[in-house]
Amino acid sequence: MAEDDQPEVAVSHKPPGSQKKKKKKKTDPLAARVTKFKRGPEVSTRKIQDKKLRGKLRASEKLFDEAAEQAAKAEKWLLPAEAGSLEAEGMERTYRFKQAEIVKEVDIISARKAFDLNLPQLGPYHVNYDRTGRYLLMGGKKGHLAITDWSRGSLITEEQVKETTRSVCFLHNETFFAAAQRKYVYIYDNRGLEVHCLREHLNVQAMQFLPHHFLLA
To answer: What is the pLDDT, as a whole number, of residue 14?
Structure first.
């Protein structure tokens, strides 16, 4: 056989890194949440001969899947965000950070929530927010009590009890609050009217309301 009659061999000149890589399947985070809300394995309808029953079971399974998907989406959007924090570098201390410095670093929406109250005459003040975070209760050491809607910058009520006030605390909502005064603890409504006096608790220094126990401690 002549040398010219030898079969040609195809040689690939592609560089070693030019071969197509297999694409990795991306996992859907929503699918993992949907699995969490499913009631269990789906009912097999292959062996069911009754067409009407088979159709009802398929419709039920479809409704269950849609409900699980809606619950997963609701959980994704309604879960609370992670709480923020301050990180100090080196020898820094977080208690030395000024509010003006924090406002410069946070986002615009959070920066708009910053406000300044200058009340030098009747303080120092003890403050407390209600559970919604909208209403601010202030109690000055010289007897000044006030509730403000800080988000709107409006004053709800203001009262001067003319007694030393050591601590203030909202109760179950903004309609009632407690004030630990010179001798007793008094309960007021959001109009500043006294509704109750706790005479069994004397010289209280600090208070906290436990909403799940409906208890003032």
So the answer is: 56
